[in-house]
Automatic annotation (TrEMBL):
<keyword id="KW-0472">Membrane</keyword>
<feature type="domain" description="DUF7344">
    <location>
        <begin position="35"/>
        <end position="117"/>
    </location>
</feature>
<protein>
    <recommendedName>
        <fullName>DUF7344 domain-containing protein</fullName>
    </recommendedName>
</protein>
<dbReference type="InterPro" id="IPR036388">
    <property type="entry name" value="WH-like_DNA-bd_sf"/>
</dbReference>
<keyword id="KW-0812">Transmembrane</keyword>
<dbReference type="Pfam" id="PF24035">
    <property type="entry name" value="DUF7344"/>
</dbReference>
<keyword id="KW-1133">Transmembrane helix</keyword>
<feature type="transmembrane region" description="Helical">
    <location>
        <begin position="139"/>
        <end position="158"/>
    </location>
</feature>
<dbReference type="InterPro" id="IPR055768">
    <property type="entry name" value="DUF7344"/>
</dbReference>
<feature type="region of interest" description="Disordered">
    <location>
        <begin position="1"/>
        <end position="31"/>
    </location>
</feature>
<feature type="transmembrane region" description="Helical">
    <location>
        <begin position="170"/>
        <end position="189"/>
    </location>
</feature>
Length: 208
């Protein structure tokens, strides 16, 4: 990709990215490029599928990608899709989404051959997508509430308010440390194995 020094923009809430330059002669996709690619659900699903099966670096048939993307969209098994379901997704990927990801430098798209292959940048990029349903809270809100709650409890103990004053200070320190330790461990596990685009299984937002 041509251009000047890559632009750096703050990541929006719920998305974190990491891009490594794998070829000094070519500008890597910028944050804006990555966010543009991820702004569409079908492109997210296609990128997720490509990254999770990219073991040998071989091109993938667009028909295979379309079938899996359609299955995720409809919440069904790929073998149970109708012709119209597959055709609708295949047409949009063929005409727009695959060329767009190629333009952004994430894939190499052979429109004539009907195949898509991740570029080195597409392989190197790490994307963490946090999806939050109406019944859930984000990790950032969770840690804020946890911190606020610990401040209130420790403050009550420091002010000798009953029954908090009956618990030794060292015990409060252990409680606070343990809560943050287990919460951080849960966050690390969740982000690495549930929120990462390209992990085994469906995309992070499927089933939310």
């Amino acid at each position: 990709m041509s251009g000047s020094t890559p632009r750096e923009q703050n990541a929006p809430l719920g998305v974190a990215t990491s891009i490594e330059s794998v070829d000094d002669s070519v500008d890597p996709p910028t944050r804006d490029d990555v966010f543009e690619a991820l702004s569409n659900r079908r492109r997210r699903y296609a990128l997720h599928h490509l990254k999770r099966i990219d073991d040998d670096g071989e091109p993938v048939e667009l028909s295979e990608i379309s079938r899996q993307v359609a299955a995720w969209e409809l919440g069904t098994d790929p073998r149970e899709l109708s012709y119209d379901d597959r055709k609708n997704v295949h047409t949009s990927l063929y005409q727009f989404h695959a060329p767009k990801m190629d333009e952004l430098g994430l894939v190499q798209y052979d429109q004539r051959g009907g195949t898509v292959e991740l570029t080195e940048y597409g392989r190197e990029i790490d994307v963490y997508l946090e999806t939050v349903s109406e019944e859930q809270i984000s990790w950032s809100v969770y840690f804020f509430l946890l911190s606020a709650g610990m401040i209130v409890l420790v403050g009550a103990a420091w002010a000798d308010l009953f029954p908090f004053s009956t618990i030794p200070g060292i015990a409060w320190a252990e409680v606070v440390a343990s809560l943050f330790l287990f919460s951080s461990a849960a966050f690390v596990y969740h982000s690495r194995y549930s929120m990462r685009v390209g992990n085994d299984g469906p995309p992070p937002e499927v089933g939310e």
